[in-house]
Structures are given as structure tokens and as C-alpha cells.
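Fold it.
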Amino acid sequence: MAFGGAAVAGGPGFGAGIAIVVVIILLLIALGIVF
């Protein structure tokens, strides 16, 4: 939902949404490696 809202906002908001998604993915990968 948050990503969709960022996409609708467009512009810098869309970039921020992508950045947040990337950070979450990296965190999940890091946790997967650790555990």
C-alpha cells in the first residue's frame, strides 16, 4: 500500500518509495544470510 501511494504521488515521492523497498529487500537478504 505504501509503495502504491508513493507511485501515485510520483516524482521524488516515487523515488523515496523505491528506496524504502530496496532497503527492506536488503535487510531481508541480510537476515537470510545471518540466519
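The radius of gyration is 12 Å.
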